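Contributing new records

If you add data, match the layout below exactly. Sequence lines come first and carry their own label; structure lines follow with theirs. Keep one chain per record. Anything else will be rejected by the validation script.
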Amino acid sequence: MATLRLDSHTVVIPGEDPAELDALAGEYHQQFQPRTPVERYLVNTLVNCDWLRRRLMRLQAELFRAVMMTPDHDSPLFGFFQNGGFGQDGLQRLFNQLTATDRNFFRALSELRRIQQPPAPGPLAVVPAPVPEIGFVPLNPAAARLPAPAPAPGPWPPARGPAQIGFVPPNTGPRRSAAAIRYPAP
């Protein structure tokens, strides 16, 4: 199976070492050992994000050095940031790019870990007991005779006295007046 790695000639800019990028890619591929195209893509994304973050951190350090070392701001790098390279908000754009690179790295990492983790063991398969055939043939037919059926019951509901209307049974206890009932004080 071929292992796809980043093409260091298209990712590396002047001042960067292609062998360093190849070594970084080799470390990521050795750690995660991608087996599928999706896993290789995610590992390459990790390598790319790591490489870009290193580049941005170098750029940030150079920019701070240029701003701090040249009080008159004669540095070409400072001029690049101020006069059209990234516009007036060049530092903010650099920080935003760093943040986006970190976010992409950790998204790819969590997705790669999710894909590569072994599947959780599912519930054990329950094998149902064999269902007996419908019907029953006794070994001793004489012992299997059923008793005679019981006589049919009478009409339902059983007859009672005169029908009463309502759900409350009649009060057969002593009568109490409303004045005799005690209510709790408010």
